[in-house]
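Appendix B, Record 12. Input sequence as logged:
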Amino acid sequence: MKKLLKGLMMIGLMHGTAFASEGPAVLLDESDETLELRAVLGDEHTFRRSVRLKLDQSFGARFSFLPSDLRQVDGDAVIDRSNITLVGEHELRSAAPQDFEVRISNVTVPGTYEGTLDFMLEGQEVRQPPRSFRLVAQARPELTLVDATRLSARRVRSGGCVLGVCPGAWLAEHLLPAELSRDEIIFTVHNPTAVPAVPTGAQVQLKGEETSYTLTDAAFVDVDGLKAVGPHESATFAVGLRRGAIPPERYSGKVLLQLAGQAQAAAFPVELAVREGPGLALFLMLLGIILGRMVKHMHDRSHAMAFALSEVRRVQQRIGRASQGVQEALLRRLDAVRAEVTAHRLDGVRAELERIEQALEDAVMPATSAAIPVPVSSGATHRVGQLLARLSGVMPELSRHDAAYHLARPMLYLLLLMGLVAVGMQAFYVGAGVTFGVQPLADYVGIMLWGLTADVTSRSVSSLRVNS
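Logged structural output:
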């Protein structure tokens, strides 16, 4: 009888792998001869593998699934047997093969684990030899930013070059920090896992917060320095920028690094603030100053013209009280003066009116011939005065008041104007203009109005009287 049973068991082994040394047994499919499970650690920490089982008899039977603990080969980590389950009802209804799922959960430490799986039919008294099982849990490559949670950068838009000369770039280099003129965003990543992370490609996704404008690939250069990052190592990469193709705006998005063997790319948040170049801002500020001067000039000319006409009328009233013969000659000269005022030629009006009034006084009251004594300075004093005049650059015929007016006033005006322009650029562009140019109307009109107020302020201070 024993020989017969052994013969039957040998026949069963010829058709598949049996676990029983006696009686009916659970057989594994030939494709599952080597029970090994390879997977990458993910967020669920659960591994799955399908196994195909069958009976070496025609009638069905229930069985028990008896796994052992899985122990790490090169470490002390252990996966408890309670975390190893066989999904589904543990029953084989016939000799036809059936698929079952082996599920291993709570795998948190990467490494190679070994253990056994035992399938035992109900009612069997003799334990079947267990099947060896190997689990290879690979760590998922991961990259994290070093000393930061997001990338943050500020840049100035380049452009405005004429015949190879870029005044805007020159102004940006001298007005703004050097970091704002760089054509790349440099960042350092770290690989905290025990497996190398191999970047195979990169993509930048940025969208404007105010205008919802999405930057295209034309605004970027391929990420430079892509290379494998070893376990527990760091590496530095650079995202190239075409600053001339990026409109002023505050952008937010991410840099994606595709890693070899991974469906999901490593993502790094990015904030990029781009401002317009300083060339147009400075031009509009100077334009505002010029407009301010033009408005003041027109106001002064109109005021001077009104004053000149009032003086003409005053002189005309005085002439009206003179004799008829005197009136005819002086009125002709007065009409010529009025024509000069109407034509906005006011330079010689005051002097001509004084001559007309002097002629009127001479005609009414003949001038006396009494001489008025004029003090004469000594020759030495006169020569010293001429020498001092030449050294100071003032004409000898100018008084101290004239010298102060013609020299100090324009110098004070230029100094104040330069200071106010510097303050305006600092306040409206350098300091508060992180995204200058996003709203062109408000930004540029505001800086031009500053130019107007700067000119008004400087002229108000420089127009102060200089007393002797």
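The first strand starts at residue 17 and ends at 18.
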